[in-house]
């Protein structure tokens, strides 16, 4: 699934909001604990730039995750990600609640997840995306799968695919030349 089909590119053209799971998508899915009980997470800097590029192109980026993490909120604040919905095991209900306050259709939303708690949302939105190292169920259910693993640039890959589909990527790259 890595090369987007015409159907995937067509769906990506409509995307105005990319929602992300965290553990296994923005991170490698591993939980790291220090000796003092502190939780550690590693975020990929390339994913961060991909998120910034989406925002510059007018595409909102948000998070729906089942866990609660102060580290995640810090990273979301650094990147200007909003909304950030934490501690929601039922992600589909969280999505429906979120949509009540937004003027978006489901076809304008992409969701990127990696495991079973993400399945209902992936099957509901306009573009369901999963990562290279996702559960086998998600790899068969998602519309598109990245070549990169969660925490290793998968979000950046999805961001570039969406931006290319919307013919916005090349103009964004120009600012770096």
Reading the helices and strands in chain order gives HEEEHEHEHEHEHEHH
- The CATH homologous superfamily is named HAD superfamily/HAD-like
- Rg over CA atoms, rounded to whole Å, is 15 Å
What fraction of the residues are assigned to beta strands by DSSP?
5-15%
CATH structural class: Alpha Beta
Strand numbers in spatial order across the main sheet: 5-4-1-6-7-8
| CATH architecture descriptor name | 3-Layer(aba) Sandwich
Terminal Cα span: 31 Å
Q: List how many beta strands DSSP finds.
A: 8
Concise synopsis of the structure shown:
The chain is an alpha/beta fold. It contains 8 helices and 8 strands, in the order H-E-E-E-H-E-H-E-H-E-H-E-H-E-H-H.
Summarize the structure in words.
With 177 residues, the protein is α/β, with parallel strands linked by helices. It has one domain: Rossmann fold. Helices cover 38% and strands 15% of the residues. The chain is built from eight helices and eight strands. It has a six-stranded parallel sheet. A two-stranded antiparallel sheet has the order 2-3. A hairpin with a 5-residue loop joins strand 2 and strand 3. It is globular. The model has no long low-confidence stretch (mean pLDDT 95).
């Amino acid at each position: 699934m890595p090369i987007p089909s015409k159907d995937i590119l067509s769906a990506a053209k409509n995307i105005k909001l990319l929602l992300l799971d965290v553990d296994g998508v923005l991170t490698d899915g591993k939980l790291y604990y220090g000796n003092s009980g502190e939780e550690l997470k590693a975020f990929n800097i390339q994913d961060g730039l991909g998120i910034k590029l989406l925002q510059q192109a007018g595409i909102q980026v948000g998070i729906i995750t089942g866990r609660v993490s102060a580290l995640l909120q810090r990273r979301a604040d650094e990147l200007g990600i909003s909304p950030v919905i934490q501690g929601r095991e039922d992600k589909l209900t969280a999505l429906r609640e979120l949509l009540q306050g937004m003027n978006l259709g489901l076809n304008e939303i992409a969701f990127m997840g990696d495991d079973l708690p993400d399945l209902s949302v992936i099957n509901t939105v306009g573009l369901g995306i999963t990562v290279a190292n996702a559960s086998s169920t998600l790899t068969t259910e998602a519309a598109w799968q990245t070549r990169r693993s969660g925490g290793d640039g998968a979000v950046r890959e999805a961001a570039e695919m969406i931006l290319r589909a919307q013919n916005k990527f090349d103009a964004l790259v120009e600012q770096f030349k």
